[in-house]
Structures
1.
Amino acid sequence: MTNEDIKQYISGIVPDTVYDETGEWLNANIPPQSWKQLAQALRNSPFSFDYLFCLTCVDWKTHLTMVYHLSSTANRQLTVVVKAKLDRNNPEIDTVSDIWRTAEFHEREVFEMFGVQFKGHPDLRKLILPDDFEGYPMRKDFEDPVNMIRL
Amino acid sequence: MFSLESITNAVQDWLNANFSPMWALIIQCAIVILLAMGLFATLGLVLVLMERKVAAHMQIRLGPNRVGPKGMFQTAADTLKLIMKEGLTPEGADKLLFNLAPFVVMIVSMLLLAPLAFSNGFQLWDLNIGVLFISAVSSVSVIGILMAGWASNNKYSLLGAMRSGAQIVSYELSAGLSIISIVVLAGSLQISDIINSQQDGWWIFKGHIPAIISFVIFIIAVTAETNRAPFDLAEAESELTAGFHTEYSGMKFALFFLAEYINIFIACAIGATLFLGGWMPLHIGHWQAFNHVMDYIPGVVWFFGKTFFLIFVIMWFRWTFPRLRIDQLLNLEWKYLLPISLFNLLLVTLIAIMGWHF
Amino acid sequence: MYSETQILKEASAGDIDGGELVINVGPQHPATHGVLHLVITLQGETIKKIEPHLGYIHRSIEKMCESLSYRQFIYVTSRMDYLSAHINNHACALCVEKGLQVEVPPRAKVIRVLMDELTRIASHELWLGAMAMDLGAFTPFFYAFREREAINEIMEETCGARLTMNYMVPGGVMFDLHPNFQKKVKAFITQFKKKVVEFDDLVTNNIIFQNRMKGIGVLSKEDAISYGCTGPVARASGVHCDIRKIYPYEIYDQLEFDEITESAGDSFARYMVRVREMHQSAKIIEQLIDNIPEGDYQAKTKAVLKLPKGEFYSRVETARGELGVYIVSEGGTTPYRIKFRSPGFSNLSALDHIARGGKIGDLMATMGTLDLVIPDIDR
Amino acid sequence: MAFIKQYISEVFGAVRSLWKGMRTTGRYFVRPKEIITQQYPDNRDTLVLPERFRGEVVMPHDENNEHACTGCTACELACPNGTIKIITKFDITPEGKKKKALDTFIYHLELCTMCNLCIEACPTDAIKMAKNFEHSVYDRSKLTKRLNKPGSKIREGIE
């Protein structure tokens, strides 16, 4: 099963996917609305992407990008990176914590650090930061005049 | 045979000769109280230091070695620190019970001192139901622990106290049964009678294997009753932080601490009295010469030697074993210790009736 | 939404209505080994629910790294999982090397692997002692620390520091090995093999210990994958996830060692995986210690490193599991975004699932065998 | 009967495993030679630290009160924590040219993590790590140190 197969499979579900193969792995840029559908399909696909080993978000100043690294425990060489571009002012994406349980904590972390709203998350509260914390510290424009040390 | 009885008799005679009988009694009481307090204080200091040194050597450490030669005054310094500390009472606590609890625990362990025979004739109160008295009074200490845990208004304390309650109530049984097996053999509840019955050999040797089994069960049961590791569920440092005495500080904490060590001492002293002959020197049947040589060692040395050996064994347990879980603790009692000790009691009774013991 | 302050208020009010008791384990608690805060709902002694509250040691290392150069950011990662500091540095160095396309000299590769395995033994030794202490046995802690001390001394001699060594630089290692290194490591391995038997007598075969561990905190294979558990935690459930085997880095593909897996998935299986892993690490060290190739210990790199534009991901097997380093570069001297996929974070997320229904005592056994290092979770 | 047999063998197995544990601790109890405690403040004289031990950044001066620092600020740039601050001045060389030289080398020990990156970065080996590890002082300001001694100057021939 090569990257071409995966591409074909993903395109079958989300037709307007843009691929990027310059990096180590196949990157699939999808619209955020179709993420849940694709995630469900990838998990149950013949590739069986059952292992979400990295879930993070990147702030590109103009928009946010959710990055999901998926792999399969049956075939470890199979890896796909799914990226979803989010609106920076109102970032919203469907949760995948019901598909991969590990996403529950990782999504909570992304929620408090980047302010991404995960629709359908069972327990979307702050995990690391105190409850009354304002702002999203991992965003590039975050300024904390008290605690941040400028070198 | 060297005995402390002559000293006590001399004191009593002198007091009776010089004072009216009532005053003599009062002065005697005062002396006894002073001696008891002195013993408690020294025991506390010595046992804590011993525990720390034993632990250190088992853990390839040196232990306290800064205060005084070989760290001898370490515990004294610690006591001083504890006295200086503020005894806090938490806000939501039941003030009366919270402050009363350490004293209840302490008083119970003091009461247990009464029937102990330190040497030939050197005994506070040789009452004819000595063993029964010990069993009865020692179970009162759980009330102090429950009080402390409940009054602290702390959930850790409450959990610790509840555990302690379940634990002590269960282990009373097998401790009692193993004591009874010696009572059956000796045919008396009186401490002095039990000691005298071991004149030609200690019960642990005379009573064959059943006596050894009941000795082992007794040691396990008293370890549990004194809340020592591996049965220290009431404290359970890594689970309940400090269990029932989480909220105690300063001298109130020190009283709990002291009571723990006094309880160990008393439990081991009872074990030494019942199974190892108390102050009775090592006698073997009819070897008159050997027995005579042994008699030169004073009874008080024998008594403390045996007691401290048992204390060492209990410390050895503590620094070797992991802690049991609460349900395993109760399983151990109800599924193993109690059936075994009941069966054992049957054997001991058989031995006693048939006169098979030496 | 149920806020944290609300829970704290309820937890301290002593409200035991309905038979449920909410207690705070941590942030200062003897068994959490650091500042982990768990809010536990109890029914009697039985655990109904566990809710972790993190962040007491959160330093936002990811954000810090965004302002540090590629040489500088490596040292910060020692402060994540401080027990396998060297392996963390390794992951970062690998990622930077991947971006720079630098070939690491063979001697440096061997040194890195040797140090990794020594660190792994040291980390597992500490875990062994600390876990025994969670269960109430104090003495194994000191025996474990004695072995660990020997490793720390070896590290100190070669790397110059004991815990946060910062021995790794992009392209190799910072110094050459100390002349005494081989002799000391051999002495340590001999000593280690002799003394590790003591733990069998004192801990592994102890009946109380086995009863406390067996059948406690069972994590099934499916759950282990779903929760993203890695390292000994997942391997105890039968997941083949040793990065050294499935994505070999450095020279792990040329070495002979077994991937330890167990099938039970309970605390005892996790315990056994770690104990057996120590032996495998010792085996790797024995294979390498006499075969360290001569040559450079550091590849020539530029003074100022610049990664090309792109994304780089590298992963290593730390003592706790899979550590992933994800660097997004914009072509500058500092990373644009860096993400550490820490093993502890994912392992912790499974705690609620596996500890439910157990007693408080079981929680300590479960938490102990998850081998949580709080700075690794918080980052 | 099999039940009783199993029960008894369970009890004996348990007792044996416990005895093995007690034997281990007991063995250490009677062998004080195995004690590993180091009596730290007392053994200061015999304490040997490895030569690579990283305790504190120092600037070695030779007998003429000369150091090797050119004031190039490579260490300042390499430091991840802003531990080092270098103040430079302009010396007039005998040829009458202006030359950048070190004025003050400020080292904040309280910020230093002993990562060795400054030593690696230094082109003239002017600074090195010392083995001193007893850093406690009563006043935090004492941790900010000036590494070049007063009146010191750069050694001849170092560019």
Note: The longest strand of chain B covers residues 117-119.
2.
Amino acid sequence: MLTTVESSMISVLERCFELAYADMPEEGQEEDQLGVIGYFPVYFPEEIVHAAGLRPHALLGGGSTTEVRLADARIGSFVCSICHSTTELGLNGTLRPMMGFFAQPICDAAKHMVGIWGRNFPQQPSQLLALPQNANSAAAVRYVYDEYQRLCSVVAEWTGREITDEAVRASIHIYNENRRLQRELTSMKRDEPARVSTAEAYLLIRAGARLRKEQHTALLREALDTLRERPVRPRDKPRVVFLGGFCEQPPLGMIEVIEDTCFIVADDLLLGQRWITEDVPEEGDPIWALAESYIERSASSPVQYDARKPKEGMLMHMLQEARAEAVILAAAKFCEPGLDDQLALSRHLDAQKIPCLVLEFEEKMTSFEQMAMQVETFAESLLFR
Amino acid sequence: MTLVVGIDIGSTYTKAVMLDEEKRVLATALRRSGFKPAAATAALYEDLLTNAGVAHQEVTYIATTGYGRYMIPFRHTQITELTCHALATIHHFPTVRTILDIGGQDIKAIRIDERGRVRAFRLNDKCAAGTGAFMEKSAWYLGLTTEDIGPYALRATTPVEISSVCAVFAESEVINHLSTGVAPEDIMSGAITALGGRAVQLMRRVGLEADFALAGGMTQNAAMVTALEAKLGAPLHRPPNGLGQLNGAFGAALLGLRRVERLQTEGHEIPTPGGDGATGETVARRWSTFVPRRKEGQATPVEQVRPLISA
Amino acid sequence: MVSPQTSPIEADARATGQRLINQWLASLGTARERGQPVAYVFVMGNAIEILQSFGFALVFPEINSLQTGVRKAAPDFLAKAEDFGFSPDVCSYVKADVGLMLSNMQHPSGVRMPPPDLAIASNLCNVYIKWAEIWERHFGTPAFVLDIPGKRHAEWRSAPDSATRIADTRWVEGQFRDLIAQCEAITGQRFDPDRLAEIEVNVNEMLRLWIEILAFNRSRPSPYNAMLDGLTYMGVLNAYRGTREGVEFMRLLYAEVADKVARGEGRVSNERFRLIFSGTPCYVNLRRMIELFESHGGVFAAADYLTYAAGGLDSAGLFYDPSRPVESLAEVSTLAAQMGLSNHFFSHHTLAQQVKDYAADGLVYHGIKSCRTVATSMADNREYLTSRYGLPTLYIESDLIDPRYWSDAQIKNRVDAFFEVLEQRTLLAKRG
Amino acid sequence: MEYVAGIDSGSTQAKGVILDEHGSLVGQAILNMERNMSTAAEEVFHLALADAQRRPEEIAFTVATGYGRYRVTFGDLQVTEISCHARGALAEFPATHTVLDIGGQDTKAIRIGDAGEVTDFAMNDKCAAGTGRFLGAASFALELPLSELGSLAMQATAPVKITTTCTVFAESEIIGHLAKGHRPEDVLMGMHHAIATRCASLVRRVGLASEVTFTGGVSRNVAMVTLLQEVLGTPLNVSARAQFMGALGAGLYALDQVRAGRRSAHSQEQEVVL
């Protein structure tokens, strides 16, 4: 027998689930009648596209329900699943409504996605948004600014919609508000993991990749109000940090298997949605504000070099902030940046005598027996310490 | 008197061990898991009782392990095979710190402490899986039984190299060598060397702390043991008198015994079977099993994560 | 029928090239004693000219790694890296280099490689950056990540004086200024623009010759094999870029190739099929791979690899303006990245062009399982070109230096079948 | 009357055919690969001769194909199985423009031009290797003979969705599904579907053009044929002699040689002229 709080929570989450895993809406079918611009992970300055009155659509792969029939003929089997499934969604027509496709130079496979798009979908403009790998040069912000200006003119050219500073500033305001709520949710999960599970928080945030931000903000508000009402039954599970969700998304089933035995109190899931870690200044040149925020107010990931953010240091900071006792280091199969960091971090944690579990996943996984066994053993080893 | 049963429901075999409070093995039993592990286990449990000559109600506590650990309704608790192997091993060999477990589907390396608690463990990459099964298949191609592999490979004079990490390609290599007239024993020994090398690599990842022990299917394979000991430059402890295969079940039984002792010293009575959900607890809702409303032809349900237990 | 590789004049340039490469490798072993600063650089996007002007000894970890393959020492180095924990899915160049670090820097060439004072990793292959992070951890040498924006899509070119051309160049120049400051800090010398200008003059001369040498292979028969001789030439082009020795070598090579063309001497005695090679070679079985093709009278007239591995400078006939050394270095590097180095992500146009320029009969893709930079979309690329131009193509797969991925029977099978296809086509053409 | 022989020396099976000078098949034999390729080829050659009631000296020319083609010591000429399968398929179904061959080691898709020439071919990259072996794993796990898998799969009512085509995990995946209570036929159908999809993507690499001929032993698997037709959206030609396509093609190439006036010299290295 569910309490009213619980049932309203479930109804919110069901709506999120529908959105989070929904296909791209057909042209015009979308309630707000917007054009859609799709982008490949990790980060994209959504505000700019939002300011054009369009809906930025984070391409998060095909999950475990997309059957890859056509893409395997185009991409080698030694390339990560998200490249296969995204290409499949293009080839099987699911992404037809997109007015354009962007990728960032996060890795070599991602750069190839632009080539693949150009060859297979000439009618659908595609481009590389050349975000810089050198974040430490004094010239970096200026370069990002120039590249964002280029983005503005490209989007205008594709869609015939001009992008004014006022509009961008307004979008920044909307996104700042949304980011504040996301941060609230994240800290709730960190401080009271029994109140909101990572799977739930994941659905809430992932829904944002499929909605105009103002709508998502409303939805987040409703969810947070409900969650505050939710009665909490504290449970004795080890607090762990989860890494490995910055690009290809681990299947929900994997997150749940982990949560059966552990509390995930910090993670990098859907990192692109949370890349900017503070408010973006709402005064001054809005494009500059976005460019500066990309370099100066941002998270870290295996696919962005920044001498100020050594990977080991960032992880240790994450551990302390989240008061976690152990780490789960996951990497997507065939993700070279992920695998490189996984090794470096696991060696560092071993040296620091911090327990860590190394996992390998694919978005298309459907059976989790072996993973459950590993996670349970990990939890058992933490509990019987 | 206390009678504790450990059951290890593996993907190919299901094994059971019955211990008394002195940790003496009263009876063991083994069956193919088949397609209906739950049924197989029930039958196996009967075998065990018959072998031990005891009745249901005399059994104090039942702990399950292995991939089917949640499928058995009449258990008291479930625990993973890694934890079980660790306990069993430290019981037999108090000095062991690193365990290697070569199974049909995967290789596991486990680092344990002096009390048999798992400190670190590592499984092979997906692309290096299926090693045990690969040995079986190779043997099959060579017209040998799994038991023959060891003695056979020891006769090798000029072992060939099997370089592929992937079991499927390795199999192709075996076939190709065979078809070019290479002597089976040389192929087999090559396969064993390759497998041994990968196993030791995995042990390195957990620190390679001496002493070492071998668990799982390969314990009886002389050639494999020799290859591993050569690579390690140290002896490999192996579970005594055929307990090798039963190691998981034995560990589960030991853990059950610990639990019983704890409950008794704390003055609790033994709970009724059905799993005390130490780790089997499931979240309020499995979103991963929730099927979204999709356009026709799109809706494809995601697999259930694992059988949910109803306590 | 493998053509005689001992004809005197050919031995000459190849021998000279080999000698230069060995000299250079040997010099690396003694750099420390000479008190020469050491820089680790990659072949794509490296600002060698600046480093040369500061007198850095240049270590190319990519070349070190491929050398472990050529010298049949790769397996040990790879094993060391995998024992260390590296996944089989990681680039085998990276793993061979890690193996080297774990072998006390003792390279199979007999040279003990010096640790870096400076390491430059460009974004043109993202693995470079992860690789440089490994050095940071191992040597404590901070990486200088050189970000050179490339093409934004296949048909994209930044027009002269366009906002993007200016922005990209300004960005690259800004980073060069940072680099120069760092070099000054490391070496304690002031930056000398005139020295840089001299180097650029040399590069221009090498480049002018290199472009003509590439063009020479358009003649039928092709005087050299782009995937065998070409690789030696490239080694020199990288290690000696901007040096006098480099210029002299290119002159020698030019003369040799020109002479061959004049005499109508081909790399293979009976050239029957002219091929284009796409992707990186397999260095452990390089000779064997070439032999598989040449035994059928197939020669590689050109390879996109040469452009990537030669810094992309040839790709648009770009030359430095020594009167504005730093500015023009930035301009040329930016355009080289745009037109050459970022091309493997959109290589269908370049390949189609090469097929035309070199009157090729077929196109050979060599997929590298552990290299996403070259191999990710090869199948798509292949599909695009075959469906549009009905061009015979072959896809084979192995690795850069990991012999485990070379299965001779399978590759021979595919190559033989490919030539049967080519034979049938010529036969049909004859029939008309 | 002169005769020619075609020997297909694969890594798991050796096949041989004898053709008369009109190109009609007068004898055939198949042999599971025992210890050694060369001896197996010899054996199958003599079995085929016996089947055709001919003597070795009546054979004017022998073409060898398959992985072991260079080990067929009595072969006069070696041709890859790509060309041979295409040639064989064309002989059986002259309108063939695409050939799909699913073998234990390799899966091949071959595109054929209007003049009957091979214009393009694709073979599985490493991880799609041995798609045929995937079925072997199934028969291993279900303890069923290969020949029965297809017909059983056809009885499926609720096919299970199988995402992995990794042969290594095929068995455990099957066992897993069965343990969850799925019926064997449903699991099998799921597997067949997974393989069919894989093979279809290979066919797409060379471009699908009808008619499509399905060669190799797996073509006798009714479920596989049905699924491939569904996934490719076109009917498939399947010959009763599907397994002999390679050998048949080799035999026809041998016939070309004889018609071109060449006779068996039992030399290993001859210039390939197709």
Note: The interface with chain D takes residues 11, 33, 35-37, 68, 71, 105, 126, 129-130, 133, 137, 166-169, 171-172, 175-176, 178-181, 300, 303-304, 307 of chain B (CB under 8 Å).
